[in-house]
Amino acid sequence: MSEQSRTAGGGSTPGGGPGAGRHPEASAAGGAAAGPQKDSADAGTAPAAAPGQDATPGRTPDPQDAADGPLPASEWEPAPGSGAPQPGWYADPAPAAGATPEPERKPDAAGPVRWKRWLLAGIPAVLILAAIAGIVFSLRGGTSSAQTTDSSPVSSSPGPDGVIAEDVSPFDFKAGDCFVDFEAVTRNATVVSCSTPHAAQIIGTFSYQPSDTFPGKDALNVKAEEVCSAVKLNQDAQKHKALRTTYGMPSEGTWQEGDRRIDCFVIADGGNKLTGSLIGK
Q1: pTM value > 0.85
Q2: Whole-number mean pLDDT of the chain?
Q3: Which stretches does the entry tag as region Disordered (predicted)?
Q4: Which of 4, 140, 201, 203 has its CA 20 to 30 A from that of 272?
Q5: CA neighbor of 181 nearest in space, from 171, 170, 192
Q6: Are the beta carbons of 31 and 179 closer than 8 angstroms?
Q7: How distant, in Å, are the alpha carbons of 103, 162, 199, 260, 274 from that of 31?
């Protein structure tokens, strides 16, 4: 998935500054988390492309790009992306000598799994004992009318540190989620309560139909800007000068794997400086 960004106040992020991104053809974005991840790309300044050539190193021109036609003028500041860059986009820098490029992120064959860290402290002990009794009763061959009754959902309340879910796949991000130590839209992230200091928030999503054919990179960029620009931020967003918006979208390769999502993010440069949701009413 490729990605594009701008400053929330209309300012620009320097070409040498950190970029941001999400889905498999996106690249690295603000946040400071470390740890093993599947995909990322460091931001860099794209070299000038020769006529008819793709500006991203290591990629061949896509005939679909010419068919889609040029994009309209955009207020979004370009961010790193490995799709066909528009004029002024940052491109993925060439890998260092001897370095092994990271593989493209793809949805899991069995579908995305969102691992959550649930707290049991709020569950009354009597419910736990009742559950154990039910298991014992079942093992003894008994039957119970309670088996046909839906169980209560497990609480997803954040822990004392504000963490709701760890190692969450980008394919499982939900609109409104806030992320601590956010690193890139292509990487797994830790979801926290938005009242906990965090570095990024997903402010909107859009999904194409499973039966839709790949619309081309230019059409995806246009749709992403349409979707993300429609999301209004609240007044708290104006308090943060180093605030950028960015979106992630499918690449042609991940589209074939079932990726249909466009995600819109707000990212704070400099780490976990956000408190509270930035989504307007």
Answers
A1: no
A2: 65
A3: 1-109, 142-165
A4: 4
A5: 192
A6: yes
A7: 21, 17, 6, 25, 12
